Structures are given as C-alpha cells and as structure tokens.
Amino acid sequence: MAKFGQVRWAQKDGSPPTTSQADGPAGESGVRVFRALFDGGAHFSATPGQHLVFVQMSPHLRLDCRMAGRRLRHETVQGALAICPAGMDSSADADGTADMLLVAVKPTQLALAAAEDSALEAELPERLSGYDQTLQQAAQSLAAEGAQGYPNGPLFWSEAASRFIGRLVSDYTSTPRRPFRGRLGQCALRRIRDYVLTNLAEPIEVADLAALAGRSSFHFSRVFTRSVGMTPYRYVVHLRLQAAARHMRDGRMGLAEIAADTGFADQSHLSRWVRRVYGVAPSEFA
C-alpha cells in the first residue's frame, strides 16, 4: 500500500489483513483494486496519494468513520461505499470481521476523465457513506477480473476502469462555485481539442496550443498539466491514440496508414504507445 500514500491498516490482532489483487495488468488505466479481509476487527487510517473508493462486501458492519473533520458512527450492509479523496486524512474502525474492496484511482486519470466530460474543474469530495449498485458492480467486476488473473486481458481492464472512473466523474464530483485561478478554462480546452483533432496528422507544437489559450508556452504547460492531469504533449498523444484505436477496431486501414493518419512517426512508434498505454499489441484491437 505504500505506493498509494501514507496508509496503515490492521486487523484485530494488529497484523495486516489478508489481501489480494494488488496489481493490475499492463497499461496505464490508473486503477488498481484490493480485496482485504480483516479478521475479528479492522482499523484503517490514511492520507492517500490516490483517490480511494471503499465497497463493503461483508453482510453487516458497525463502522466508526472519520474524514476531513467529519465523523460518522453507523451500521452498514453489503454494498455500502465511502470515498476518500487523495490527500485527505481519513480513518475507519470496525468491531467485526470485515471484507472490503478498495479501488485506488490516480488523480491524474480522474482529472483527464473530468476534462473530457466538460467538467474541467471538477473535484471529488469526501463521502462517508452511501450505496450505489452500479459503482458496486463495476468494482466487483474489476475485482473478479483481478482474482482470475486478468483472463480478458489489459484492454478489457482498461475499458472497465474507464467506466468506473466515468461513474465517479458523472455522479460524485462537484464543481466549485468560483473557478480556480491558474487553471485552464473549458472553452480554451475545447479550442485545443478541436485544433488537435483537426490536425492529427500534422506536427503539433506546444506553442501552437499555448496561442489558442492566450498564454506563453511555459506558463501554458504548467496550467494545462495542473488542469488536465497530463502535459500538453501527452494530451496530444492521448487524442492520437483514441483516433488510432477507433481505426484499429474498424479494421479497414493498415497499421502504417493508421500511424500516418493519426500523427505517429511510423507503425513502430504507434505500436510502442499502444503497448505502453493499453498494455496490448495493436492486433488485439481487432
């Protein structure tokens, strides 16, 4: 758990819980899933570096939860969920055996999904309790895939993870009343996206994108990364990969033609990016 920030968890005897599914398949989905069984009792405390979504699998629990100065003591049943945003102090204690799913989501991945959903300044607030059958089923699907050794492959995982993040963005984020200073506006991002999609096959420089936002290249890069969760260069690659994936699924163009049409240097360049981001060879998109 160290890679997810400052996290401590223990069962009644003080030892770590029994866990599974800690690592995901190849690719950059930004989502990892744990299943943790706490014998006799549970303690969890964290200041996580990633967004954490908890889904209760136990039939019944008595929970004492604390998050961002708020406290809730309640009894819950299977399917109860809680959300701890990255960087927020939180803790929870249960006085019985607890079976939990824990889904960790990279903040940069959530920021990108929010930007693509026209919610550029969206924040993920804390949530101490709730029930969401759709989110629960998505988490269970990811957990089952991991438990079976990812039989459907990295591409299936990537798409399932995207749906999970999409649900978080659409139903659990909020937009602040006042726009953040030093952030990219939604209109500027739309201009940039339209420009990139119109010029996919051509060289695209950061200076071109900065001009669309009315900023210097240096300042633009910092603002863009803070707003969208990735650098302008990676965002251009992201849009090129999305277009390339559509072509690969369509199956009417060869890989070299797809690479040229979407702005990659050649098919090897495209293949490297496909493997890095999706964790599969281009042929697996067919």
Describe this entry's structure for a reader:
With 286 residues, the chain is α+β, with helices and mostly antiparallel strands. The chain is 41% helix and 22% strand. The chain has helices at residues 107-116, 133-147, 153-172, 186-198, 206-213, 217-228, 232-250, 255-261, 267-278; strands spanning 5-11, 18-20, 31-38, 42-48, 51-56, 60-67, 70-77, 81-84, 90-94, 98-105. The strands form two sheets. A five-stranded antiparallel beta sheet has the order 1-4-9-6-7, with no helix packed on it. Strands 2-3-10-5-8 form a five-stranded antiparallel beta sheet. A hairpin with a 2-residue loop joins strand 6 (60-67) and strand 7 (70-77). It is globular and about 60 Å long. The protein starts with a strand and ends in an 8-residue tail after the last helix. 36% of the residues are buried.
